Amino acid sequence: MEPTHIPQSFNKLETESNYGRDTDTKKKNNVMTSLKTIKRLSIKLREYSGHYISKKQVVENLKKAKKARNKIEKEAYKLRLKFKTYLKERTAKDRQVSVEILEKQEAREKKAKEVGDMSKKIRERDFRSPVLKATVTDPVSNEVVFIETQRELVQAAAASNRKRQSRTEGTPFRVQPLLQEFGYCADNRTNVEAVLNGTYVCPPTTDKYAKEFIKMLKMPELIRNRETVDLVVTADQHKQGWKKQKATVACDYYSLTHKHYKTSIFDPSLNEIDSTL
Q: What is the value of pTM for the model shown?
């Protein structure tokens, strides 16, 4: 049974004993209230159960609350849909249109926002200030040089690209005799098949490490006995594959969405070109 009256002497005694503790609690938890304030409010509202109910009653109340929560969770999705429908109906009423027209308007607004965000990201990427200052390492003197003009920057970038893309020059497969035996792009298919079969004989002047590498290129019998995989994609396979892709997905945040590429599958000539590529 809940009490209907609390003696003032009890409140005064407990208030004096808890004053220091409440002050420390407020400082520790960085809050603007305390247990004393909450208790005063509960007394004013005549709600004493939080201070006087037993542990057994607390457990029973928690079980009841859990049952009520589980019951509500089962219908939460339906309630959410009902609430969304209510919001749409109210918004449609305010705009003096039907719900179907409102949904189309919201879809157009969402699409326009996505296109706007994508355009903004593209503009930020394309219209950034050009880089006109850089430090490069001189390939001759091996010293760090500071450049400030666009002409010097272009020349330095070209030299760096040429150096990076020419690292294979002077390697065993780019000098004689292997260059003549295989060509730049494995043009001699006879020698290539001989390497895969393990029957290729290297010329006498071949680098010893290149010989070991060629020896390890022999194709294992387990792989040779497998069925040949056809890597050619037909136009119909290309079309069916793109149909399964989501239209709103993109490879990068600034790239075109799959919707752009899916449109080409409906044109036979474009679909043929894309499947070949």
A: 0.37
